[in-house]
Amino acid sequence: xxxxxxxxxxxxxxxxxxxxxxxxxxxxxxxxxxxxxxxxxxxxxxxxxxxxxxxxxxxxxxxxxxxxxxxxxxxxxxxxxxxxxxxxxxxxxxxxxxxxxxxxxxxxxxxxxxxxxxxxxxxxxxxxxxxxxxxxxxxxxxxxxxxxxxxxxxxxxxxxxxxxxxxxxxxxxxxxxxxxxxxxxxxxxxxxxxxxxxxxxxxxxxxxxxxxxxxxxxxxxxxxxxxxxxxxxxxxxxxxxxxxxxxxxxxxxxxxxxxxxxxxxxxxxxxxxxxxxxxxxxxxxxxx
Length: 288
What we know:
Number of strands: 11
Distance between the termini: 47 Å
Radius of gyration: 19 Å
Number of domains: 2
Number of helices: 8
CATH topology of the largest domain: Spore Coat Polysaccharide Biosynthesis Protein SpsA, Chain A
Largest sheet: 9 strands, mixed
CATH class of the largest domain: Alpha Beta
Shape: globular
CATH superfamily of the largest domain: Spore Coat Polysaccharide Biosynthesis Protein SpsA, Chain A
CATH architecture of the largest domain: Alpha-Beta Complex
C-alpha cells in the first residue's frame, strides 16, 4: 500500500539502516540520488531499491520532482531522509492503518533527534512533527530554500510515533552542513518572508506545523544577536536540554551559537554590505 521515497547524496554510511527500516512498511522503495561519488547507489541497488539519479537544485525541487515522476507502485507515499530510521513502533502503527478506507489524505509523523549516538529527550527540538505519509496527489513540498515541510489541502491525521533522525556525522561535517544551511536560511529571509499558497501559513492556533512556523516568525521578530542567547536559554535551561548530558550541551550550544547566531551574523554582514549596519539591533526580518 505504501511506496517509500528517499533522497540521497553520499549517504553510504547511513542508507542501509534507512532502507532496512523502510522495508518494514514497503516493498517499493525509490532512491533519488544526486550523483553520489561513494557507494550509495550500489548499496541501494543491492538492497533491491529502484534508483534514479538527478542533479540537485534544492530540496523542494527534488522532492516535488520525485512526487511527479517516480513510477510508484502504491497509492500512498512515505518520504524519508537518508539518515532517518523508522522506529519499530511507527512501522507497526503504519501497518495497522487501512489506508484504502481511512478518512485522511495524509498523516503527520514525529521525529526524534539522535545526536552523537544519544536520543535527545529534552529541549523542545527532541521531538518535531512533519507531514511525511500521504496519498498520491494529495501533498507537495513547500517552496522554501530551507526548513521545508510537505503541505496538503486535505484532511490530515497524526501518528504519535517517530522516525529517528541520526545526526551521526563527525562534528566537522555537522558544522559544514549547518554553515551551508545558514546561507539558505539567510537567502530565505532576504526573500522578505513572503507567504503564498506554496508555503505553510503560520498560525498560533493551527496545526503543530503551523504553530512551529508561527514560533519561527516570532523568533525573527526579536532583536538580532540577542535572540540566539534567548533561544539557548529557553531550550537548554527552561526546557531541560541540560538533562541530556554532554551531548545535550554540545548540541544546544552549536544549534544556538553556531547555527542561529551565525544566521544573525550573516544578516549583519548583509546589512553592512547594503549600508544598514547602524540599525542592526532594531530591524526585523522585513527589510533585511
